[in-house]
């Protein structure tokens, strides 16, 4: 039966494993041990070369004593790992196993409690920033970021109209129920909102949390060199889910699938998986971290969702995949659950992977990056942008000269100048009626604009982005595949 060390030597270095040749660089060794203790624990194996050959350590007993003294003298608070000598053939390895610590943050004494804190990021050690250190101190004290009160604010700083709308008429939102949801707390004899309440429904959320918004981008190709379209989402967090979905749908397409009894519209992107990933990002992001918002990047072959904040101490990516979850923002999670946006804490990531298997897609990829966690969802087919939005491209002289000819051709086909202008505008980006009116130079949404949109819908040249909610305030209109064929210069392609 193989020794457990044989299996360990075959594993790649990562969040919980590192190999060292010797103790010639003691500071790097201590950085690794501190990073393990501050994250999910890990094993440091000393006596292994770069090519994974077993070199062993000279004078094993002396090296064991040396590593113990380095740890005792070089790391605070006190760290007590398991130190073991293991024989492999005629060589001896020194294995230091570190467990997740409740005394974190640990740091190097030589650098101090601010500069000497390290965390594990993949297979490397990263100096922790002040936001991470502050979060760790809160956790050690039993405090949760989004449950903390904001005594400088009052109930009037919450958008109670939006709260009533999203919860619906069946839920009473009195002070008692808001306390139960931990949206309000009593502070010095008065009710004040919690951080979670302001993040969810604050009238001036970004004044207090400048990076609590979502940046959406559509890129040409497979990297971020050429941006095709972008959108910023500043809506209340429960509303942000739908708004992000709308942006993704704007750059996807829909086909009809006919079953035995009914027609089913199928999107070219895995919306079920993406919705779970979006909600996961909104619930688990570290809103105390400064410098980066949540990012949703749509490439030709994939969609990446990046949320700020490293994994909570003790958590690994394998834990996430298996359904283990620790809630960073329990107030936000509780409200999302009450609204039916999540079913069960910790089940979202597992459902994403199960849905990928069901749809025959590659398994999603989760990785820690410098700013937080990225979830990558591969698409079943390539998506190449068709028409560049007018607000992101620079028109050439030929483009400007061809627009009147195109508008004239559309007017002839559609037998309406206004319908032609609507189609031209929707050819650049989906728009609501008010947006269309402004783009066309109208001060209000006229009856004729209503009429022509209905006509284009009846002709299946235009479709609603939210067909099941025709009166939604977020309703937009976009060209169908048939509508896009109107731009074909060859006559007779459409009727």
From TrEMBL:
Pfam family, any one: Fic-like_C
Highest taxon listed in the record's lineage: Bacteria
Chain coiled-coil ranges: none
Region (Disordered): 382-402
All copies of domain Filamentation induced by cAMP protein Fic-like C-terminal, residue ranges: 450-480
KW ATP-binding (keyword) present: yes
Molecular-function GO term, any one: helicase activity
Gene3D superfamilies (alphabetical): 3.30.565.60, Schlafen, AAA domain
Keywords: ATP-binding, Helicase, Hydrolase, Nucleotide-binding
Keyword RNA-binding set for record: no
Record domain Schlafen AlbA-2: where: 13-128
InterPro entries associated with the record: Fic-like_C (IPR049514), RecG_C_sf (IPR038475), Schlafen_AlbA_2_dom (IPR007421), Schlafen_AlbA_2_dom_sf (IPR038461), WH_DNA-bd_sf (IPR036390)
Protein name: ATP-dependent DNA helicase
Classification of source organism: Bacteria, Pseudomonadati, Pseudomonadota, Betaproteobacteria, Rhodocyclales
């Amino acid at each position: 039966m193989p020794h457990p060390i044989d299996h360990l030597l075959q594993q790649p270095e990562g969040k919980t494993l590192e190999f060292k040749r010797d103790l010639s660089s003691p500071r790097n060794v201590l950085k690794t041990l501190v990073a393990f203790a501050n994250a999910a624990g890990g094993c440091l194996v000393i006596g292994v070369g770069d090519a994974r050959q077993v070199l062993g350590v000279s004078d094993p007993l002396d090296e064991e004593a040396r590593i113990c003294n380095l740890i005792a003298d070089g790391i605070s608070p006190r760290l007590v790992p398991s130190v073991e000598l293991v024989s492999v053939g005629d060589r001896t390895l020194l294995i230091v196993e570190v467990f997740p610590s409740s005394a974190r943050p640990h740091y190097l004494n030589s650098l101090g409690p601010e500069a000497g804190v390290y965390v594990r990021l993949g297979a490397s050690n990263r100096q922790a920033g002040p936001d991470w250190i502050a979060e760790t101190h809160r956790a050690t004290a039993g405090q949760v970021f989004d449950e903390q009160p904001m005594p400088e604010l009052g109930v009037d700083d919450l958008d109670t109209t939006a709260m009533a709308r999203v919860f619906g008429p069946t839920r009473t939102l009195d002070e008692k129920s808001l306390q139960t949801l931990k949206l309000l707390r009593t502070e010095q004899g008065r009710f004040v909102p919690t951080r979670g309440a302001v993040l969810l429904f604050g009238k001036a959320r970004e004044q207090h949390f400048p990076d609590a918004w979502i940046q959406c981008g559509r890129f040409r190709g497979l990297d971020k060199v050429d941006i095709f379209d972008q959108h910023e989402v500043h809506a209340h967090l429960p509303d942000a889910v739908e708004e992000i979905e709308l942006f993704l749908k704007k750059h996807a397409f829909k086909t009809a699938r006919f079953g035995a009894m009914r027609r089913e519209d199928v999107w070219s992107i895995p919306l079920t998986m993406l919705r779970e990933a979006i909600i996961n990002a909104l619930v688990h992001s570290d809103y105390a971290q400064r410098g980066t918002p949540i990012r949703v990047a749509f490439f030709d072959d994939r969609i990446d969702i990046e949320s700020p904040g490293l994994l909570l101490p003790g958590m690994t990516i394998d834990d996430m995949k298996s359904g283990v979850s620790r809630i960073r923002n329990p107030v936000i999670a509780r409200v999302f659950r009450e609204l039916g946006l999540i079913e069960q804490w910790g089940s979202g990531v597992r459902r994403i992977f199960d849905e990928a298997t069901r749809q025959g897609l590659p398994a999603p990829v989760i990785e820690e990056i410098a700013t937080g966690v990225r979830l990558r969802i591969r698409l079943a087919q390539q998506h190449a942008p068709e028409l560049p939005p007018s607000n992101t491209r620079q028109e050439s002289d030929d483009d400007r000269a061809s627009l009147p000819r195109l508008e004239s051709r559309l007017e002839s086909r559609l037998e309406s100048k206004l319908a032609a202008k609507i189609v031209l505008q929707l050819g650049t980006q989906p728009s609501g009626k008010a947006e269309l009116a402004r783009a066309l130079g109208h001060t209000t949404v006229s009856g004729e604009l209503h009429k022509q949109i209905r006509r284009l819908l009846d002709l299946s040249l235009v479709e609603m982005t939210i067909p099941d909610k025709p009166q939604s305030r977020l309703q937009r209109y976009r060209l169908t595949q048939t509508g896009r064929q109107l731009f074909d210069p060859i006559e007779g392609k459409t009727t």
